[in-house]
Amino acid sequence: MNTEMELINQIEAYLRGEMPAEERRAFEQLRTEDPVLNAQVVAHLALMKELADYGKNLALKRQMNRIHQSMNIEAIRSSVIKEPAMVVVMWKKYRASIGIAASVAILAVFTTLFSVGVFNEKKADYNALRRVIEMDKRIDNITKSQNALLRDMKPHAPTIPAKYGGTGFALTTNGYVLTNYHVISGADSVYVQNTDGEAFKAKTVYSDKESDVAILKIVDSNFKNYNSLPYTFKKTSDLGEDVYTIGFSKDEPVIGSGILSSRNGYSGDTTAYQVSMPVNNGNSGGPLIDPRGNIIGIVKGKQDQIEGAAFAVKTDFILKAINDIPEDSLTSKLVINKKNALAGLNRPSQIKKIRDYIFMVKVY
Amino acid sequence: MNRELRKSFPADSEVIEGVLKGSEETLNQLYKAYFPMVLQFILSNTGDDDDAKDIYQETIIVLYNKIKSGNFQLSSKLKTFIYSVARRLWLKKLSQKSRSSNNIKDFEDILPVEDDLESYEEKDRQFKKIETALSQIGEPCKTILEDFYMQSKSMQDICEKFGYTNADNAKNQKYKCLQRLKKLFFQS
Question: What is the distance in angstroms between the Cα of B112 and the nearest Cα belonging to chain A?
Fold first, then answer.
């Protein structure tokens, strides 16, 4: 123990150069002769160097801290960097997190909206009244065979059953037909069929989802222009007015009657009236007619929970639609009838005259 | 602003000479000259003043090690070297904090400095070991060893400072302390 301590002391004295010259020479001699001693010297030297380096390192750090404290960091900072506003700093620091949070929030909002059905076009208790024709398989089969039988008489009637059906009515004498947007939306082709069972091919020249108005043009060469229309369009109507409609809720026209019950439609829809009237699928696109034979709207839907609440597009939006048609999609002039031939007639006589101008709209 | 800063940079060769001589004035000049550059870099890359201080001081230590090991060649500018080291150290710290180190905004050219950092980190680990060992041996051992080995004080001074009656007692104590330190150091 003591000898080892002596040895360490010797080694340290030697390494620090504190040995007298004579002793030093003797020690060096010993080192060359004794490899064990030499190894000890080397190891101790390494340890001393390590400790000394550590000391220097600490000293350097102390010095640097002193220098650092003497510096005006504030001033340096403002000189190297245009001090960004607090918000900018926060933004830079957290923008990734903000981004993720925002996406999650947006996703959550849209998922919720989606799951509660905000994006469902069909409102829960609102029912657009176009008819799904394929549902009536039995009837379809009959009409199919009829169509096949009557083919020579009606060369343009398609033999396959239509997908959807609605109602439409003549807007002008030269083949423009009014119906609902939702009746013809998504159609591959559209045919209109009159009460005599004659079908004519039609194309859509205008459609507006917001007001649910569509204007078709009969493009069939077999269609003969009317001499005149019996009805006119009337912009304003009074609440409580007796009204009726003609619609193809089955394969032949059906009359529905009621009164104009409210100025606005489904959940405050200002484009429509509310009518207290029984309507069914297939009535969509039918005219709403007042006692003097004026068209005051287009039947478009009903509310499920409320008894007899049907809705009809106001005439304003029909006229607006007419104005909105781009000039170049009109192949022939669109002239609105101004002369009412129905005013003095009672309802059955009116219907007799009007029914020739009502069509079943068949959508394929 | 940059022109002013450049004016106050000490010449690279002077710095190297001063560091080798251990001149405190050199350290003072060096430290003040390049700190703004590192501060700018750190602040622009999601760090703060304290980060800049830590990174900069580590950078200076790396520079000192390199100069003292004798292989700092003036093939590159001191400024570029300092910037590259600081940048590398900061990227490392960012990845430790698991912050993104994409989109790093650079202001200077960059040198490859991986080797220098490796030897620095090796040394730093050793220092940490010594620090822990020293903190565990307790007083008066710690101070005796620090005085003797790190500040190269003579045994005579230590003897007086701690009030040992003779140098042999002090040597005895120091020897015991050293044995304990070695035990702790080589254990860990």
Answer: 24
Instruction: Let me know whether B62 and B32 are in one domain.
Output: yes
Answer yes or no: do A67 and B31 touch at CB < 8 A. yes
Query: Does B45 lie in the same domain as B29?
Result: yes
> ipTM score of the complex?
0.82
B152·A52 Cβ contact <8 A: yes
Contact A201, A362 (CB under 8 A): no
- List the structure tokens of A84: 């960004």
User: Whole-angstrom Cα distance, residue B81 to residue B72?
Assistant: 10
User: What is the residue-level pLDDT of chain A in tens, covering all 364 positions?
Assistant: 457 777 888 888 887 777 788 888 888 888 888 888 888 888 888 888 888 888 888 888 988 999 998 888 888 888 776 655 666 777 777 888 888 999 999 999 999 988 887 666 556 677 777 777 655 455 555 544 444 443 333 444 555 667 788 999 999 888 899 999 988 888 888 999 988 888 999 998 888 888 889 999 998 888 888 888 899 988 888 889 899 999 888 888 889 999 999 888 887 888 889 999 888 888 889 999 999 889 999 998 888 777 778 899 998 888 888 888 887 777 777 788 888 888 888 899 999 989 889 999 988 8
User: Is residue B93 domain-shared with residue B134, that is, in the same domain?
Assistant: no
Please check whether residues B17 and B49 belong to one and the same domain.
Answer: yes
**Domain-ending residue, one of B90, B113, B136:** B113
Same domain, B97 and B15: yes
| pTM recorded for the entire structure | 0.47
Q: Which of B58, B92, B113 is the last residue of a domain?
A: B113
Contact across the interface for A60 and B175, Cβ inside 8 Å? no
Domain with B49, as residue range(s), is 2-113
Of B39, B123, B130, the CB nearest to A51: B130
Q: How many domains does chain B have?
A: 2
Mutation for A interface: B46, B128, B149, B183, most A CBs within 10 A: B149
Rounded Cα gap, residues B19 and A334, in angstroms: 97
Same domain assignment for residues B86 and B140: no
CB-based burial, A288-326: b 16+ in 10 Å, e otherwise: bbbeebbbbbbbbbbbeeeeebbbbbbbebbeebbeeee
Report CB contact under 8 Å: A64, B178.
Answer: no
Cβ–Cβ < 8 Å for A342, A354: yes
My answer on whether B56 and B20 are in the same domain is yes
User: B131 and B183: one domain?
Assistant: yes
What does A245-256 look like in DSSP terms, one character per residue?
A: EEE-SSSS-EEE
